[in-house]
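User: My collaborator sent over this chain with a note saying "see what the structure looks like." That's all I know about it. Can you take a look?
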Amino acid sequence: MKFKVTISMTLVVALMAALLGAAKDDGFGPYKPTPLKLSIPKGWPKPNSDIFAKNKLTEEGFELGRKLFYDGNLSKDGATSCGSCHQQFAAFSTYDHDLSHGINNTFTDRNAPSLVNLAWMTSYHWDGGINHIEVQPLSPITAHNEMGETLENIIAKLNADSSYSRYFKAAFGDKAITSQRILKALAQFTGSLISSNSRYDQWKNGTLKFTPVEESGYALYKANCSSCHREPLFTDNSFHNNGLPLNRFGDAGRQRITGLSSDSLKFKVPSLRNVQYSVPYMHDGRFNDLDKVITHYTSGINYLQPTLDSILQKPIVFTERQKLELIYFLYTLTDTSFTKNKRFAPAQPITIKH
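Assistant: Without extra context I'll predict from the sequence alone. Here is the result:
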């Protein structure tokens, strides 16, 4: 006796979907990323471009980026991480060292800048040689005097670490570890490093008052510093020659990138946010306190440089009291809720919900 078995198309589709779903699950639970939104602080402008337009910001992507940021396996010696030079307590700069330290006790020829409010930047590094946040890590990762590693070796090391399966699955839907995903995750973490809760911000929002000394310092800042260090980011994201002499490395700054003599000795204007903690200062860390920085602008500028910024052609005059008042104001830009935020500290193991 023969029986005719009829299977409806609906049942076939349902069975196939179940099988595909089981395969995609990989034993780590369903792919359900938690969307995050870049928070724009009150009174701030919108970023010129959306750095997450093609890299959707999620909690899981952020967590993977945080784990990678502090992982020494991204370097050749297995010990030098992104966080080695960009230390949270120093506003993600290198504290008290003029030059960044690389693998095998090597040194770079520049100071590690603070990683803060990167979503508002249009270029990265002191010379602006990088124009997208996802590309930025490639330079330090591959530089012989920084992390000295290749993406191929990093992928191999991460594949050998079973903990990363959960992180990549949670962030991207499957366990595949690729260079693009590594860079996207790092961008999600670093692009989320927003500092906007300093004493200055609280004053701006009307929740506290400046002291008379801070008010005087603010007035001095507006009269002498604000043209380049513009509120509320305290940088204009452009490049200027501020009259520093050529250093021992022959670092010509922006000219390295453009090849133009008109860009000689021009460096990116750093943000003054958390400047109290991001010591030492300038592209080569030559000044170890704010008093020396201010003294440079009052009596140390080389006026013979043809590319010296026009704003600095006339000497700035400060009394000793005014120097202190300006410093007191600069200290109001310190945001301890940023430098002590556990969310930006080394990652903790995550649990993926099944």
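A starting point for your reply to your collaborator: Confidence is low (pLDDT under 50) at residues 1-25.
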